[in-house]
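WARN retry 2 of 3 for item q-0093 after timeout on previous attempt; input resubmitted unchanged.
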Amino acid sequence: MEYDYIIVGGGSAGCVLANRLTSDPAKRVLLLEAGPENNALTLKIPAAVLSNLKSTKHNWAFQGESEPELNGRQIQHDRGRTLGGSSSINGMVFIRGNALDYEGWRQSGCEGWGYADVLPYFKRMETYSGGADDFRGSEGPLHVERAEPKDPLSLAFIKAGKEAGYATTGDISGFGQEGFGAFDSTIFKGERWSAARGYLDPVRARPNLAIVTKALVQRLTLKGRRATGVIYKNGKGQTVIASAQKEVILSAGAVGSPHLLMLSGIGPADHLQSLGIEVKADLPGVGQNLHDHPDFVMKYKCLQPVSLWPKTKQFSKLAAGVQWLLTRGGICGSNHFDAVACVRSGPGVEYPDLQICISPIAVDDETWAPLQEHAFQIHVGLMRAHSRGKIELRSNDPADAPRIFVNYLQDKRDRALLRKGIRLVRELVEQPAFTNLKGSEIFPGADAQSDDDLDAKLNSHTTSQWHLSCTARMGPSTDKHAVVDASGQVHGFSGLRVVDASIMPFVTNGNTNAPTIMLAEKLSDAILGLAPLPRIEASTWKSANYETTQR
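OK item q-0093 returned
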């Protein structure tokens, strides 16, 4: 079994690479995915998000370590375990992040990753329902749909933002991210449009592409400081050795890629030795620098019968399912995240660090069952958390999930920022637009006012937005904690590259699926030896008064 390239992980990045690398018929590519095929009906229905997350068939459902600042709670980290990866089970939210995120990447030593460098790849990857312009593309594999808010709660949310003095934006992934506006989603004609749908399905028949599902990679094979292939177990439990003439590319995600590097002897030497793993290279940054976006959900009673709650009852659900099967329309054809606000937490903050979005239904935090009343919820997401975590091996057995310790709210600044976000939401729902819609605050509740009160609620209810990243970060070789260079190549090795969210120097300002697909697009050119796309110098909006005003 010899190939030119072996891609480990058939998720968002892996699907992009499989498409682009096999465009040259002379290149033989093996794509390995630990999970099954992505042909389940629930993976196509946008509104079936919670069903997919509750099942472990297509979800790794990693159990995190006890989090000291969250009352010792263990947070479940949902990650896609099927072709398409997390893009096959996620909430389908599409947001690129802020232009200044990428300027920060460039300034951190990652040459070629400034906003002007990445914008051409964002445009290349998408077909945007709003049409092409200076920022958006119209000929890419990934369909991105602009969901114009129509439900009364989302409309009130945007109107309340104006009433509170915030800016509005016509495109949060275009000229101006800051403000209130519509969310984009990876939905096309009422179906989820995952990376597998967009990138992998059109090229499955290529004779130079081999796709193997239910393939659990055990470790890399190395010859000195060169990666020569992988050892994996197939769906029958048989051990298979596959060789790569050119490169092994890890696209197993922010959990899987550092896990495999460490199992192969590449990582923090002390940690590997403690588990009896022969150290091939002491790279202390592997598994470190773990980022996530903490999430806190506020819930309100709804004074009008405009929430989705009645449509979640058994008969209504059945009718909605039939409607979707026949027409791909109705409530099943949406992810029900239509409106978002990207705002700054206070004066002196250069660009948005809070992402606030509304859902026209409220659910129980533990069971995700709808509250049995008309209600809605508002998510407060912290986009630039200061706390850092790590991923470590649990054992030297590849079948054992690694330890995931995010260290939520360890840095006191994160608590302060989330408290600000809670208070900004409370101010928002007191605007006239919500007068006839917003009832009492179900959670955290009107009695939770002081910092101590809110901290107690943060401890008991902060959770994840499922945006784990940065565990094999890019950086120059002079940075001992950088794992890969600006082309994704692992420092000190040849024939070994990492291409997924783990190589982000720091997490982007928003959901991470769009940036992950972008970086795979960009690095596919580097792998093939192609010149990068011409830079696009496009100015973006930033508050001229950010130093003195919050909005």
